[in-house]
Specification:
Number of strands: 9
Mean pLDDT: 90
Largest sheet: 5 strands, mixed, barrel
Shape: globular
Distance between the termini: 15 Å
CATH superfamily of one domain: Nucleoside phosphorylase domain
Order of helices and strands: EHEEHEEEHEHEHEHHH
Helix content: 25-40%
Low-confidence stretches: none
CATH topology of one domain: Rossmann fold
CATH architecture of one domain: 3-Layer(aba) Sandwich
Strand order of the largest sheet: 4-8-7-5-9
Radius of gyration: 17 Å
Number of helices: 8
Length: about 240
């Protein structure tokens, strides 16, 4: 067990947390060998802020916004890893811990396709290609998610360093069908029964399934690679 204080890792969904080898429902936290406290908070900024408050009270040394994101920059494809240097939302901007983020970048550079730059956060899912294009024109951000800015703002309030590790799930030109998030159960797990029922009622959506599975597999592989290469403390000193 580590003698150093653990880091706090915040994932919105159980599927993102499973890259740490943990199967946790939403609104739960687990200690990973004393190195990390992994919190599955649920989607959205309010849940993310609550997770930061809980982890800060537990004495973590730093915070990580962990998971998938939607690409805004057309260069990015599924599985590409983004280590934002800054995240912005609602006219505010928050700088990630530069040294910490750089240590991970140096460890990963030859193993994944890696981007550095600006990310942005919004309150709602951005599913359509048209909406992503508008947001890219407005912000110039590489990616979009729902939690990183809230984590960054709360980390600042608690005086804690933070970074974000986000892997592209859907590229800028793709539109996510509604069932990708509407078929989650109350604990944040994908409900196969709901998916099946949706596809029975909307058989045209079947054509999107192979692409979704392919992109999800690439994103999960990249997140798992970050964890393997960076180690259980994700290069936090």
């Amino acid at each position: 067990m580590s003698e150093l204080p653990p880091i706090g890792v915040i994932a919105a969904l159980p599927a993102e947390a499973r890259t740490f080898g943990a199967r946790l429902p939403c609104n739960s936290v687990a200690s990973l060998g004393g190195y990390s406290l992994l919190f599955v908070c649920g989607v959205g900024p309010d849940n993310a802020r609550r997770a930061v408050d809980i982890l800060a009270s537990a004495g973590v040394a730093g915070l990580v916004s962990w998971g998938t994101a939607g690409a805004l920059d057309p260069r990015l494809t599924a599985g590409d890893c983004v280590l934002p240097q800054r995240v912005q939302a609602n006219g505010e901007s928050y700088d990630a811990d530069a040294a910490w983020s750089q240590r991970i970048a140096e460890r990963l550079d030859s193993h994944v396709t890696l981007y550095r730059g600006v990310s942005c956060s919004v309150d709602e899912v951005v599913p359509s290609a048209q909406a992503k294009q508008r947001l890219f024109s407005q912000t110039g951000a590489l990616i979009v998610d729902n939690e990183s800015a809230a984590i960054a703002a709360a980390a600042r309030a608690h005086g804690l360093p933070w970074i974000a590790v986000r892997v592209v799930m859907d590229d800028a030109g793709s539109t996510l069908p509604d069932f990708t998030w509407r078929t989650l159960d109350e604990q944040g797990f994908t409900n196969l029964g709901r998916i099946t029922w949706h596809l029975v009622k909307h058989p045209a959506d079947l054509v999107t399934v192979p692409r979704l599975l392919h992109d999800y597999g690439k994103a999960r592989f990249s997140l798992s690679r970050v964890f393997r290469d960076a180690g259980p403390r994700l290069m936090c000193p």
